[in-house]
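Most newcomers find our protein records easier to grasp once they have seen one. A learned vocabulary of local backbone shapes supplies the integers on the structure line. An example says more than a description, so a record of this kind follows:
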Amino acid sequence: MPDLWLPGAEVHDLGDHAPTDQQYPPKAIAHITWDRNATAAAPQDWCTFDSLVSYFTNGGASAAPHIIWDPFSGRIAQLYPANSRSKSVVDSPGGTRTNRAGRVVIQVEAVFFPYCRYQGRVYPRLVDTPCAGWDRLHAWISSWGVSDVWPMGRPVDFTSRRNEQTWETRGGWYAHAHIPENDHQDPGSWPDFTTAPTPAPPPSEEDPLAAFTEADLRRFIREEVTSQQVRDTIAYAVDFRMGPQADARAAAAPGALLDAPMPDYALLPGGYRPTVGESINGAKTAGAQIAGLSAAVSALAQQVAAGGPVDVDALVARIEQAISSVTVHLTTTSKENS
């Protein structure tokens, strides 16, 4: 049997346990706490995780979920065991039993509202946050048989779609905006489902360079170091210095310019948005790596052409020297141009 309580969660057992309806498939319901009504023009400070835990364990216990999730720090509190109903959706007399219609009906309240301000940054959507802790939360809910599907569609805005027959008969994930007898429109967005990473194979005890040829090195440079992400970053850095908008950019205060966020195409894995300064530094680092690896290829080719065995120590030393020299050159050039 899966864990009734999410391992590592802060347990605040409300004690008011009640069974769910076992004839229906397992489900999860996604909520945001939506504590304040902020806008893009008037963002408001985020309500803390501890304040929401205090609310749901006291005056708000009549609407308490199973899980309270802080998407910024990854902290999670649990108020009901997985096999009990919770109380976060309206359940009118008669009709479907919204809090109970499943072998489990696990309800998650993300501590979030649109355009909340956290540590100086404004977050329009839940998916714009780090979504810290989502992987382990999702894995635990999946262990209870909740499928990675949205029978009414994954929430991408605050549109309501409700169908009582779908709710009762199909398992998976539902937004609060999908639950019969309710009028809430949250959560507006929700993170992607995740899969467990494939374990890395154990390291080989053989010489890692035994089958690593010049062709392998060249292919690595071509396919990995010169990836589309690196090319985009370098292209943006070049455009920053030389593109059609260079004059306007140059007129901006240097500090404000380098602290400005990059556009959407430069988002990094996990949704992190680098600043212009970070992207330029990344381009410089990539350039140094490319130059250093190119030097390594040349060194290896020369040794192979000479017909002698490859001197691994000498090759490593030449790689380090090449990367170091290019990095120093880039740093010096950057200071001269600043």
Observations:
- The CA atoms of residues 85 and 100 lie 6 Å apart.
- The first strand starts at residue 10 and ends at 11.
